[in-house]
Design brief:
Layout: E1 5-8, E2 15-21, E3 29-38, E4 45-51, E5 56-63, E6 68-73, E7 78-82, E8 93-100, E9 109-113, E10 116-118, E11 120-122, E12 135-139, E13 151-159, H1 165-171, E14 183-187, E15 196-197, E16 207-210, E17 214-216
Antiparallel strand pairs: 1-13, 1-17, 2-12, 2-16, 3-8, 3-13, 4-5, 4-12, 5-6, 6-7, 7-11, 8-9, 9-10, 13-14, 15-16
Length: about 230
């Protein structure tokens, strides 16, 4: 696979989106993952999001005023967030959010940074299933708010399972095939050019790039003796 990322510029309103989908609607467990390299930390930046016809339904984002990563169920304003200081401008970080709606509060959401669990705060009565909203999945933009991504994005993954700490640690530094059990959306950004990023899972929800973002070879790993071995 190619070793590329997409470079989104907020002032050019660049982002990626799928066709309308119900892929994550009503899930009782879900894991989101991506590698992200922020260009700066001076603004709110969406990472992976899903909207409805009128409001955001859920989003994972970076909040500059508190320097945290958030997962928000927008319909009820319930949220989960990391401790502060998780990002460094100009440095790649792997972010994973594991959701298990069947667990008691505050254990429904756990964040992992570079393969390690970090302190996570979860609002009381956090939703027991992922909210529904028939809109596209997006990378680097939110519906209805106009917020846009800024920086490098790659290796975006959604699972319909709550990945374990061991699974996060074992797999965050390797490329996948798209056929792994529970993997329902996988964008390895292997194309290196063009306006479409292929989803390698059976969902086939390709990402369309809007406003011509650049492709970058600045990537969080170097292929050495073992194909797919990461080196930050």
């Amino acid at each position: 696979m190619g070793l590329f990322a997409i470079d989104l510029e907020a002032d050019s309103t660049q982002y990626g989106q799928t066709s309308t989908t119900t892929l994550t609607d009503g899930l009782a467990t879900m894991t989101l993952e991506l590698w992200y390299k922020p260009e700066s930390l001076n603004a709110y930046r969406p990472l992976i999001t899903k909207g409805s016809s009128t409001v955001m339904r859920w989003l994972m984002d970076y909040e500059n005023d508190s320097d945290k990563i958030w997962f928000i169920e927008a319909g009820t304003s319930k949220s989960a967030s990391t401790s502060t200081g998780q990002l460094v401008a100009g440095t790649y970080v792997h972010i994973a959010m594991v959701y298990n709606g069947g667990l008691s509060d505050p254990n429904k959401v756990v964040f992992y940074i570079n393969g390690s669990a970090v302190s996570t705060s979860v609002d009381a009565s956090f939703p027991t299933t992922i909210p529904t909203g028939t809109r596209s999945l997006k990378v680097g933009q939110t519906d209805n708010t106009g917020a846009n991504g800024d920086g490098l994005y790659t290796e975006v993954r959604i699972w319909n399972t709550a990945r374990s700490a061991a699974q996060i640690l074992a797999n965050y530094k390797i490329q996948l095939t798209g056929t792994e059990s529970g993997l329902i959306w996988y964008l390895p950004f292997q194309e290196g050019s063009g306006s479409t990023v292929a989803d390698l899972t059976s969902s086939a929800l390709n990402l369309s790039l809007v406003n011509t973002p650049s492709w970058s070879t600045n990537y969080p790993f170097v292929v050495g003796g073992t194909v797919g071995a990461f080196e930050i």
